[in-house]
Amino acid sequence: MKNLSGSNLPPTVGDSNPESDSVVSNDFSTTFGALILGLVFLLGVPGNFFIVWSILARIRRRSVTAILILNLAFADGFLMFLTIFFIIYLAKQTWVFGAAMCKGMFYLCNSNMYASIFLITLMSVHRLVAVVFPRKVSLIASKKIARRVIVVMWVLVMLIAIPSVVFRDVRIDKDERNKTRVVCAPNHTLPRHVRFQYALETVAGFILPYAIIITCYVLILRRLRQTKFKRRIRSEKLILAIVVMFGLFWLPYHVINMIQVAAEWYPDNSPTREMLEHISKSSRAVTSALAFISSCANPVLYTFAGKSYIKKNGLAFMAKLFEGITSDQGGNKKSRVLGKDTLDTSNIQANSSASQSGQNGI
After folding, report:
1. Contact indicator for 23, 29 with CB cutoff of 8 Å
2. Which of 75, 168, 277, 346 has the most crowded Cβ, counting Cβ within 10 A?
3. Where is this region: Disordered (predicted)?
4. Closest CA to 343 of 269, 255, 240
C-alpha cells in the first residue's frame, strides 16, 4: 500500500511495539477529542484573529505588551486554524493527508505550542520588570529590544520543534475491530527516543517556562500587596485566573507525556508498563484536545476584562483595552493604568500607584 506521496508505507505494527496503538485507536477518546477541537476551532480562530486585527488596524503606537499579545494571538490563531486537519483525522480515524503533511502538521503544531508558552513567559517577565522596576522598563524592556527577543524566540521555537518531524511518520495500523487504516503516529524505534522527545516537550514547554511565570507573578503580587490600590484585588484575580487556566489545560497533556516516559523504564511485558501504556494511549487524544483550549481562552478573558468598553467603543474595545492610555482633560498626555479592565503594563510609571496595575495577558 502506498501513501498519498507515493512512498511505501511501513507494514502493520505488531503488538510488540510499545506504540502499536495510535491516538485514534480508541473510539470514545477520538470522538470526545474531535468535539473539543470543533468547539476550539469555532472560538479560537475568529477570537485570535480579531485580536490581531484590533492591534494592527486600531493601535498606532504599539507598546511592548501589544507586540507580545499580537505574536501570541497570531501563534494561537494559526494553531487553531490547524485544528481542522486534526478534527478530520479524529473523525475519520485515519490519516488522509499524506506523509509530508503528517510531519509538517505536527511540526507546526509543536512550534506553535512552544511559541505560545514562550510568549506568555516573556509577557510575565516584562510585567515583572514594569511593576517591580518601573524606572528601568524603558531601558531593558524597550520595543526595540522586545522585537529582537521575539525574533530569537521564534528561531529557538523552530529549532526545538524539530523532534516532532524526526519522530513522526505515516504507517499502517489496526483499530479495535481489527480494521486496517493509515495513521500519522510517532515512529520511535528506541526507548530513549520516546524519553527524549516527551521529556523535552514537558521540561522545555511546560516546567521551566511555567516555573518562570509563577516566580514572576509571586513577585508581582507581593509588590501589589504593598500598595493601597483599591482595585488591585480584581487585577490579582484576573492574573491568577490566566496563569491557573493555562496550567490546568496543559497539565494533563504533560502528565501523559511523563507517564509515557515512565513506561519506557519498565521491561517489556511488565504489568506496570502495560498499565502506563494503556493510560497514555487511551488519553492522548483527549489531553491534546484540552491543551488546544488554552489557545482560545485568552480572547475570552480579554473580552471579559474589556467588557466595559464594548458599549462605548464597539469593535474597537479590544484595541482600547490593549492601549491602556487615556488623555487627561488638561491636554497633557498622562499614562493611566486602567486597573478595572486593563492589564497593559507598558506605560507603568515610576510611582507606586502606577505599578499596582493588572495585566490582562500573561
Report:
1. yes
2. 346
3. 1-21
4. 240
Q: Does any domain span residue 251?
A: yes
Contact 69, 129 (CB under 8 A): no
Three-point CA angle 23, 29, 34, nearest 5°? 90
| Structure-block grid coordinates of residue 131 | 511593576
Of 245, 166, 251, 137, nearest to 202 by C-alpha is 251
What tens digit of pLDDT does each residue of 72-115 get? 889 888 888 888 998 888 888 889 999 999 999 999 989 988 99
CA–CA gap between residue 331 and residue 4 (Å, rounded): 65
What does the alpha-carbon distance between residue 63 and residue 82 come to, in Å, rounded to a whole number?
29
C-alpha–C-alpha distance, residues 362 and 347, integer Å: 16
Whether 343 is in a domain gets the answer yes
Residue 338 pLDDT greater than 60, yes or no: no
Write down the pLDDT at residue 353.
39
Q: Which residues pair with 327 in a beta bridge?
A: 333
Contact between 185 and 168 under an 8 Å Cβ cutoff? The reply is yes
Displacement of CA 304 from its chain's centroid (Å): 20
Examine the pLDDT at 221 and tell me if it is beyond 60: yes
DSSP state of 206: I
For residue 180, what is the enclosing H or E element? strand 180-186
Contact 9, 171 (CB under 8 A): yes
Return mean pLDDT, the chain: 75
Assigned domain for 103 exists:
yes
Global pTM reads 0.76
Residue pair 340/234 in contact (Cβ under 8 Å)? The answer is yes
Distance CA 235, CA 303 (A): 15
Q: How confident is the model over 234-259, as a mean pLDDT?
A: 78
Q: Give the integer Cα–Cα distance in Å for 281 and 21.
A: 7
Taking a C-beta distance cutoff of 8 angstroms, is the pair 216, 123 a contact? no
Report the alpha-carbon distance of residue 5 to residue 2 in Å, rounded: 8
Q: Which domain holds residue 134?
A: 27-356
The pLDDT score that the predictor gives to residue 19 is 52
Neighbours of 352 (CB within 10 A): 13
Per-residue model confidence (pLDDT) at position 141: 67
Residue 14 counted as domain residue: no
How many structural domains compose the chain? 1
